[in-house]
Amino acid sequence: MSTAQGPDPLPADASQERRAPVRVGLVQINNSFSGQNYLPYSVALLQTYVQKMSADPGLYDFLPPLYKRVRIADAVESLKDADLVGFSTYVWNGRISLEIARRLKALRPGIVIVFGGPHVPDQPEAFLRANPQIDLAVHNEGERTFLKLLEGFSDRDAWQSLPGVSMVKADGSFVRNPNIDRVRDLDEIPSPFLEGAFDSIMAANPSESWIGLWETNRGCPFRCTFCDWGSATAAKVTKFGEERLYREVDWFADKKIEYIFCCDANFGIQKRDVDIANYVAGIKKETGYPVALSVQNTKNATERAYETQKILSDAGLNKGVALSMQSVDMTTLEAIKRDNISLGTYMELQRRFTRDKVETYSDLILGLPGETYESFVKGVDQLIENGQHNRIQFNNLSILPNAEMGDAAYQAKYGMVTVESKIINIHGERIELDDDVPEVQDLVVATAAMPLADWRRTRIFCWMTALLHFDKLFQIPLILAHGISGISYRDMIEAFMAADAKRFPMIAEINAYFHKEAESIQQGGSEYVFSKEYLGIYWPADEFIFVELTAKGKFDAFYAEAGKLLAETVSAKAAGLPMDIIDEAIRLNHSLVHQPFAKDNLKIRLSYDLLDYWHKVRGGEQASLTEKPLAIEIDRTAKPYDDFQKWCREIVWWGNKKGAYLYSPRSAAITPELAGHY
Question: CA-to-CA distance for 468 and 563, rounded, in angstroms?
Answer without folding.
Answer: 12
